[in-house]
Amino acid sequence: MYRTAMSLKFQLLICFSTLLFGASAVAQEPLFEHIGPPDGLNLPEHAVAGQNVRVNRRALRSPRISIELFGETYIADRQHVDRQKAGQTVWTGYLDGNPGNTVILTIRGNAISGMIQNDAEMYRIGSSSSAGNRLYFLDLQELPDDDVGSVPAGDGEASAAPGATTESANTVQDLLVVYNQAACNSAGSCSQLQADIVTAVADINAAYTDSGVDITMNLVGTHQTVYSGTNASTTLSDLRGTSDGNMDEVHGVRDSLGADIVAMVYDGQGCGIGYSPSSASSAFSVTDEPCLVGNRTMAHEIGHNQGALHDRKQHSGGVNGNYNYGYRRCSDGSDEDLGSPYFRTFMSYSCSGAPRVGRVSNPNVNYLGVPQGIDPAVDPAKGAWNARTLNESATYVAGFRDAPVSTPPNAPSNLVATATGPDSIDVSWSDNSADESNFELQSSPDDSNWSTIATLGANVTSYSDSGLDPESTHFYQVRASNSAGPSAFSNSDSATTDPLPASIDDVATGDLLIKGDVVGSYTATHNDGGSVQTVTETHNGGPKRRRKQSLEHGWTFDVFGGAGGVVVFVDAWVSGSEGANFYYSTDGGASRNLMFTVNNNSSDGGQTFALPGSPSGDVRIYVEDAAQTNGEAVDSVSVDHIVITSYTNPGSPPAAPSSMSVTGTTSSSVDVQFTDNSEDEFGFELWRSTSNPAGNCAAGSVVDSLPSSAGTGLVNATDGSASPSTTYWYWAVSFNGAGDNGSCSNAASGTTGAASAITLSVNGYKVKGVKTVDLTWSGAGGANVDIYREGSIVATTTNDGAYTDNTGLKGGGTLTYKVCEEGSSSACSPDQVAVF
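and the corresponding structure tokens:
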């Protein structure tokens, strides 16, 4: 069932999102690009809002990812990456460094799946009815509880009484997931559902790792069956039955894969149901598709198969001294209200203020600083230690089906770690076995405390560990595994990352083809003075005198970033008189900011621009033609070199400029000149005031930011925003990654002339129903004028006194025009209105 109207909660979300839009953390590789605004239409019952997104697959190669969740941006740090299968990558990490906020991202072929927990909020990435994917903000309270009715008995042997021996070695349990067409339809497609299944299993394993559960849930396969039932209990019984005519082939698939546990995903009643505790003949569970990603229902039902129970309140307080119960801390004033933090492990039922988290109850493991369970030896009436239950039943459950092979693979050897930069180490090893299914690579800061950083496919013998700190030492070891278990570890080896160099240059990693004819690729921009990439305008059709030519192109960069600032250098030129505007974007192209305009017709040594905030990760550079004028000639921009330089050390601020002077004025502009006394500035700020600053460098306001100049010497600039008959004082400040030194140049003054009396007349008429306006004017100074329609510049044209605006608009009404000297907002004609 889907919602077709905005809920009040969604409307509040949109208001909150609008207030926050634009606030972001330090730029990292963005997970996705938003397509249109958030909406509240056609949502699943358990979703509050939706947002169409285009997922950046490259982000899953990064150790840090920027994720914007409906207006607020977070950073996710990678903990583990799984590349066991060709065409499949699973990225596991935490949001904003909080180990309770799990992030699971899956790419499986063309399908993308994900879940993101942000405290009590849960988000899901699924398929979209249009191109791309869809981000959902979930309200899990709208889902039913797991387990329809009572939990069915599974005739298993799992123990819950004190005294059993806890297994310590990691045990692999093989899982087969079965699904039907109804589940595919609910997910959007079968390929999307298969990716969602991978995400759900990765979330199970992350919960095990974070809870002291020594089990790896191995997804040995998925299988589509023909089944149309929707009753949970009936479906579970039909799945278990071997000769009832319902899904009987599943048992043969299970045997061929050696699956210990079988879980089914369907679209039906409730959230899920599973036998507890199970035996080889009852290790079955059923999960409703909407409950698969984010709600952790599959983990819950498999937990029943392994012998785990709900929180004690669901079992009338439970058995005194037993421990196979979930744990929760509720914000409801009850005896389960132990104060913040409030949460519930995935075997527990819901209660006020307690989000379900990816954890299994365990008194020896903390969640947000508090134990996530209770030892029955401390409080027999409240014992909650499902991790112990799962560990004790691990080998029993893993024996439900024989593994296809009986011996683990040979251990890898000859592991070598080699530093390849200030943030990366390459690791390689020898594969000594032909029957491994994967390799588990571990890292340690001290050759003692190890953690798994990657799970890699069979026959893989190398890995690049990135996102490391400069001059940091890391130890590595690797082992192979198959269904019989893991091998011994290889030898360990260490490497120390390189120190940061003074600067790091990043060149373009790809093209963004938007509009225009392009000759050459982004690789032509990698070196200065070599081949060039040229973008030529294309037109919008129609008669030649009315055609508007335009171009727009972009480049992607993966920027290192640095405390000393990040500077863009562009060496480019245009073919005609029309300039080319260069922009930067640090939010995946959602917004752009002008850096500078290129007007030269050959290489002039290039221009630079210091990016505000010293961003890292995804940065995009765009170029557009500066104007689109009817009947103009076809122009092009040639780009020889684009490089973004990250300075790793702030260093010292540059020396202040000096010798400021005013070299010329018009009615709307002031020309200034000053001396650059530094060779390490990133640029200059040109300041202006209508009164003498008397040495106060912050007395006025910045009217322009100028790029750095090569070496030292004279710098010229023009303030084109001046008003007529006004006296202004100007001074300059230089800056680099360390800021400015608090000093500025001297202040020089100049007075603009009286404004020219520009007169304008307009004549509006229609040509085949299209509004057309003839403009004639006189009294404007300068070579060019700007034509304004309805307050916006529609053309910059020669100051010859006449212009025809083919608006492309139809209908009646009026249009308001004015003509201004090029670049001026004050030397303008009065508004004139064309009537149709």
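(Above: one complete record from the training split.) The longest helix spans residues 190-210.
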